[in-house]
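for the writeup, i need someone to sanity check this before i put it in the appendix. the sequnce is what the collaborator sent (i think, or maybe the updated version? ugh). structure was predicted straight from it, no edits. if anything looks off just tell me and ill rerun, i have time this weekend
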Amino acid sequence: MSITNEMKIEFDSKSCNEGFARVAVAAFLTQLDPTLEEVSDVKTAVSEAVTNCIIHGYENEVYKIKVECRIKENEIEIMVIDTGKGIENIERAREPLFTTKPELDRSGMGFAFMEAFMDEIEVISEVGQGTSVYMKKVIRKGE
């Protein structure tokens, strides 16, 4: 499958930029003529991944978050990358309702939402080096 288009953005890890990331990815996705539900799914997954970078990766300090998107035929691949503190136990972090920040009223559902709304998700993380979340969704074009 050949890459037909790609884009990369980088922005500060401020909560006000979470909406920017959602809209930027959604705008890029429109070339695949997705349904409103598919757009909503992708926006939610991107929002969760970016929020994880801000809250957990950088603990509300300002560093950079990168979002890379690739379109291959009718699929979108999205990588959300931080160079923050990393995840000690990825399996545990992916468990529904698990959170390392209960004092912030975090639901612990970020990865569960990403998994529910995307067709594929992979988390690569190294403590002290950062985290990359790879997500893929097939856009069915009204099938």
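The two ends are 20 Å apart (CA to CA). The chain is about 35% helix and 30% strand.
thx in advance!!
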